[in-house]
Amino acid sequence: MSENVTAMPRIGDKAPEFKAVTTQGPINFPQDYSGSWVILFSHPADFTPVCTSEFMTFATLESKFAEANCKLVGLSVDGLYSHIAWLRTIKEKIEYKGMKDVEVKFPLIEDITMEVANKYGMIQPGEATTKAVRAVFFIDPKGIIRAIIYYPLSTGRNFDEIYRALIAMQTADAFSVATPADWQPGDDVIVPTAGSCGVAKNRMEGKEGADIKCYDWFFCTKPIAKETVLKTVLNK
Known about the structure:
This protein has 236 residues and is α+β, with helices and mostly antiparallel strands. The chain folds into two domains: 141 residues, Glutaredoxin (3-Layer(aba) Sandwich), CATH 3.40.30.10; 58 residues, Antioxidant, Horf6, Chain A, domain2 (Antioxidant, Horf6, Chain A, domain 2). 32% of the residues lie in helices and 19% in strands. The chain is built from six helices and ten strands. The strands form three sheets. It has a five-stranded mixed sheet, with helices on one face. The termini are far apart.
């Protein structure tokens, strides 16, 4: 028995291209977003409670993501009129965790045919064959997929982590470093492994700056002030 299987894009791949109708008009993806980071995310269905809580949260945080040069694009396999009615209901009727009168201004893609969802591997047959899981794709200004997070239908996303991951990737790019577990702006960053051996040797010989700390040849860190990160990444 043959199955229609579409390979899921991977980290480092170019984001699959598509044209679609959205609640904010037609888009040509990712070309329309060249020069910006994009978070492309899917949800299982309109008029469902977990998705409603997520869209309210994303909409409330949209300006915060915008400050980090990141735009939001949502998707589900519902139709445009369903999207419009759902978003209107959110604005007019739903109050949750202090959020009320929330207007979703970022585009929500109509994907009745599941063409886009299949291109991005958002349909997981183990979860459902007719609903997209809670996928999150981080796409950089060059249209390259930099990170992917998947949640099952029953689990709402952690938006602090989505934002943290975005800032961590931007910091890594800007300063040519890596970020350790649970990193937040202002925490020490990791000197890339390729240079750690030489850094450690120089430290032992007194040739390296005092801001570098080496725990062993493969593990060296250095501080980057929170203000420096925010000024560079957020232009603050």
